[in-house]
Amino acid sequence: MFRLLVAGGWPIYLLLLLSVASLSLIVERFLFLRRSRIVPAELSDQVLNEYRQTYSLSEETLGNLSSHSLLGRVLSLIVKHADSSPEKVRELLSVESMLVARQLERFLNAIGTIASIAPLMGLFGTVIGMIEIFAAHASDGSADPLHLAHGISVALYNTALGLAVAIPSLICYRYFRSVVDGFLSDMEHIAMNFFYAIRESSANR
């Protein structure tokens, strides 16, 4: 197998690098995009119950909340501006949401790009290999069909490896996009419900 990869030519080394890069980014995103790290269950209820005890949270508590998760950052922002108008809070949440989305979408474009260029790189390697094979046969006047078929099969390893890199990369890219969109939607819904619950609690104290 190693000899076949070596015989596939220099483009196959680029594909191997792309495969390592894609695998590394996919593993990183799987570890990062966990619900417990992004939108922990019951976090908003816990913070709301704690807020209702004193109708405020200490700076230390807010700092811990902000570093707890991405949702914690959003909830901390809402608590800090609990007395602000809904319009101002929405504006602040819009800015914070962009920052959160940037963290959630980190490396996704890189994975998508690898999924797009890997098949092209594989095809390029196959074309280069075919050119070299036919040039070699033309120069020595050889017309052995078995030798020619073997050379073509080796050249096609580039295409096969390109597809092997692209297919899982594309699947993971689509999956991560769906996960990120779901997190952002959940976070927006939780944040607005939390804000109005905070306002209602403050008004009824």
UniProtKB/TrEMBL annotation:
Keyword Zinc among UniProt keywords: no
Listed transmembrane segments: 12-32, 107-135, 155-176
Primary residence: membrane
Chain ranges of the MotA/TolQ/ExbB proton channel domain: 74-188
Transmembrane helix listed as a keyword: yes
Keyword terms of this UniProt record: Cell membrane, Membrane, Protein transport, Transmembrane, Transmembrane helix, Transport
Annotated compartments: Cell membrane; Membrane
Membrane topology: Multi-pass membrane protein
Top-level division of the source organism's lineage: Bacteria
One annotated GO biological process: protein import
Pfam families attached to this UniProt entry: MotA_ExbB (PF01618)
GO CC aspect terms: plasma membrane
Protein family: Belongs to the exbB/tolQ family.
Protein name: Biopolymer transport protein exbB
Native organism: Candidatus Ichthyocystis hellenicum
